[in-house]
């Protein structure tokens, strides 16, 4: 195969310079199979650029890098139904002494694919001595027993991930000898959901909540067939560890529904392009498919003809796409059809689709984003935050093993700050996937710099049962993995804002290893994207980009909705401030500000009772006004404006201060970015400069609207006498 090289798109974190260390050396790639071919092609391309050589067998110059498959083949495919030992309800990440890492008797004997030279044998011995096998379907080890760096993997995908690790390491991969370093993904499935439409939707456009131009897959009703672009996308995703992509919007409209049947070829083509990068394709389907596509009178999950229709349809899908990943379903949510129409529940619905997928190793991602979007705002007893738990927790244990209940990380909807969804702690007998939003619907729509890895890292490290107990990452790792809504479109920078590429990269890396520090992930991304060797002042570049990005999510939080209350965005498109925009609407997203106070009382004592959906200690912490963390205060409590926060500030003064601070931080970001003129590609510099001007304008608007609003409601002046309008 040849590696893609679209000329009309930014190379993101795989510019040729990122391959300098690999491409300037002599490399041996050992093993067979399509993904090994991908590894070979990647190294070959790097060598063409940087002067090294690569071969698969035979004689040649002494090699400095070996990428070799071991003879051991893992029985499990990444998407196969996990066995007790694989899932075991313990984190998937290797733990010394756990069944995951134990050396199987006879394993070292099994590893002998032939005479590759002494360094490889030493590397294998080293790996075995370190108790490092089996590596699993996607794991790999990097060993440097002497002067040669050796990457070992049991399976092809592991070799590909091993190559990208060596690329990340750059020159550091060829430093002093070191023993085997074993890498295995924490999550078996690391998935991106595209909300791409085939037709241009009259309101949502080509990509729902897309801020990077059109779709890379479809344009105005037709497949784009930009094969290079899709391959290049697969390559970028593999390089950060993503292994599954759902290609179309979870809101499945009439044309998009047909991707399951007469337009399946379009999906198969994408699958063909992504397969060489270890990525399986999934498809969003409509629950009403038996009616709208099959002409049946019902889509009732207990109807025999409906079951047969799904079985036959699924069989046809696998005939076209043998490694098809499975279905994604948004049912009974925001107008999408679902089992409620037939008096059935979500377990009935999900199990209907899971059955036919099961023999092929496919899964159903069944979304838990189910709530009443036709709420009466006057009715204080209905609380949207409660909805997913109310619907799904009682169904725990009823889902088939190849159903993955996909839960948004928070109880509302991808806000800048929300507590962790209580569903994540409520379904021990169900495989759960946690869903993030890389596309910045509520975090600046790729007009604003907002590096989201610190937010995701907080969420992944959160321990719903209290400190020292299992984390959100552990739940996802034992269950269905991590999913995120993609931020990619046909924009020349992939993501509209060039710095938003870092979010896509970070999502993949955190899904692979949720313990990575967000600043370290940013360093990886910086070093790849802005290869230091090509920069006039790499230290200044790195320092400045850290200053701009590390805290950008918290800056965004400061100038938008305060203290976890959420929304306050313009209805519909969700960009920019509108404090009361959703206040008297049916969407269930209220802040309840009046002249005396603000916030949503979700306590058991006097409010909606939502705090009772958490296990201890959080059920108590959130219930207590005194204990509730400041950043979530208004999510859980309605308080007077003079309520004193743990920080010592009153609520209203906190609102004023953070809004002035947030804008000042954006001003500093604009100045810092100016210093980088000449240190980054001029087209990148120009694009970011343009976006920063908009970010500053918008941040000022947020500051002035939010501050003026709370000043007018509360009548409390700013303690520092700043203008409040
Ligand atoms: O955040 C909301 C978005 C909808 C989206 C929905 C969902 C695809 O505003 O555009 O629909 O979430 O997650 O299903």
UniProtKB/TrEMBL annotation:
Record lineage: Bacteria, Bacillati, Actinomycetota, Actinomycetes, Micromonosporales
Entry keywords, A to Z: Carbohydrate metabolism, Glycosidase, Hydrolase, Polysaccharide degradation, Xylan degradation
Active-site residues (renumbered): 334 (proton donor), 413 (proton acceptor), 441 (proton acceptor)
Protein name, UniProt field: Alpha-glucuronidase
Disordered, as annotated region: 74-106
GO cellular-component term (any): extracellular region
InterPro entries, alphabetized: A-glucoronidase_C_sf, GH, Glyco_hydro_67_aGlcAse, Glyco_hydro_67_C, Glyco_hydro_67_cat
Family label: Belongs to the glycosyl hydrolase 67 family.
Matching SUPFAM superfamilies: (Trans)glycosidases (SSF51445)
Chain ranges of the Glycosyl hydrolase family 67 catalytic domain: 182-494
Entry's Gene Ontology molecular function annotations: alpha-glucuronidase activity; xylan alpha-1,2-glucuronosidase activity
Domain spans labelled Glycosyl hydrolase family 67 C-terminal: 495-722
């Amino acid at each position: 195969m040849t590696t893609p090289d679209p000329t009309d798109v930014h190379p993101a974190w795989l510019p040729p310079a990122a391959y300098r260390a690999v491409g300037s050396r002599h490399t041996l790639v050992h093993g067979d199979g399509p993904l090994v071919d991908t590894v070979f092609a990647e190294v070959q391309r790097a060598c063409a650029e940087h002067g090294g050589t690569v071969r698969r067998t035979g004689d040649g110059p002494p090699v400095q890098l070996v990428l070799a498959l071991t003879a051991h083949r893992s029985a499990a495919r990444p998407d196969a139904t996990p066995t007790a030992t694989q899932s075991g309800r313990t984190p998937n990440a290797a733990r010394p002494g756990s069944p995951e890492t134990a050396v199987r008797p006879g394993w070292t004997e099994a590893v002998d694919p032939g005479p590759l030279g002494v360094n490889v044998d030493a590397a294998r011995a080293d790996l075995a001595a370190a108790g490092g096998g089996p590596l699993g379907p996607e794991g790999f080890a990097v060993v440097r027993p002497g002067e040669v760096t050796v990457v070992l993997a049991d399976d092809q995908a592991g070799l590909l991930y091993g190559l990208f690790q060596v690329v990340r390491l750059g020159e550091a991969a060829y430093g002093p000898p070191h023993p085997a370093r074993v890498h295995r993904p924490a999550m078996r499935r690391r998935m991106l959901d595209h909300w791409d439409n085939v037709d241009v939707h009259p309101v949502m456009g080509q990509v729902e909540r897309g801020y990077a131009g059109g779709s890379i897959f479809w344009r105005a009703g037709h497949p784009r067939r930009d094969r290079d672009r899709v391959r290049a996308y697969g390559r970028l995703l593999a390089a950060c560890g993503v292994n599954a992509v759902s290609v179309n919007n979870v809101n499945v409209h009439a044309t998009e529904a047909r991707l399951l049947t007469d337009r399946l070829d379009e999906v198969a083509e994408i699958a063909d392009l992504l397969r060489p990068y270890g990525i399986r394709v999934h498809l969003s389907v409509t629950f009403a498919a038996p009616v709208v596509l099959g002409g049946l009178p019902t889509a009732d999950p207990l109807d025999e003809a409906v079951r047969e229709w799904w079985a036959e349809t699924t069989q046809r899908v696998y005939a076209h796409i043998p490694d098809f990943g499975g279905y994604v379903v948004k049912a009974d949510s925001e107008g999408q059809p679902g089992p409620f129409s037939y008096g059935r529940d979500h377990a009935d619905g999900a199990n209907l689709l899971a059955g036919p997928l099961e023999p092929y190793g496919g899964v159903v991602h069944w979304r838990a984003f189910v709530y009443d979007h036709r709420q009466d705002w006057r009715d204080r007893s209905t609380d949207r935050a409660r909805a997913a738990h109310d619907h799904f927790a009682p169904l725990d244990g009823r889902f088939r093993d190849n159903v993955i209940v996909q839960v948004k990380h928070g109880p509302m909807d991808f806000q800048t700050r929300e507590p962790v969804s209580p569903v994540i702690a409520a379904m021990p007998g169900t495989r759960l996937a946690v869903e993030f939003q890389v596309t910045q619907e509520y975090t600046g729509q790729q007009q604003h710099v907002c590096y989201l890895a610190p937010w995701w890292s907080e969420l992944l490290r959160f321990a719903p049962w209290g400190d020292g107990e299992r984390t959100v990452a552990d739940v996802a790792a034992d269950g269905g993995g991590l999913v995120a809504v993609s931020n990619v479109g046909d924009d020349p920078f992939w993501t509209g804002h060039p710095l938003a590429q870092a979010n896509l990269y970070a999502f993949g890396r955190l899904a692979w290893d949720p313990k990575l520090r967000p600043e370290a992930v940013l360093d990886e991304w910086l070093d790849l994207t802005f290869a230091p060797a090509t920069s006039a002042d790499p230290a200044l570049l790195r320092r400045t980009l850290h200053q701009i990005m590390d805290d950008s999510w918290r800056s965004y939080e400061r100038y938008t909705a305060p203290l976890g209350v959420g929304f306050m965005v313009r209805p519909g498109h969700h960009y920019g401030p509108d404090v009361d925009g959703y206040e008297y609407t049916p969407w269930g997203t209220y802040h309840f500000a009046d002249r005396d106070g603000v916030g949503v009382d979700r306590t058991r004592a006097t409010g909606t009772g939502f705090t009772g959906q958490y296990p201890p200690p959080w059920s108590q912490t959130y219930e207590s006004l005194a204990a509730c963390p400041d950043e979530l205060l208004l999510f859980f409590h309605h308080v007077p404006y003079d309520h004193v926060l743990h920080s010592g500030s009153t609520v209203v003064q906190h609102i004023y201060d953070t809004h002035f601070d947030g804008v000042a931080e954006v001003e500093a970001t604009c100045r810092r970015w100016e210093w980088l003129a000449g240190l980054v590609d001029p087209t990148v510099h120009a694009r970011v400069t343009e976006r920063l001007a908009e970010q500053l304008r918008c941040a000022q608007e947020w500051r002035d609207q939010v501050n003026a609003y709370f000043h007018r409601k509360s009548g409390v002046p700013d303690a520092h006498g700043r203008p409040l309008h």
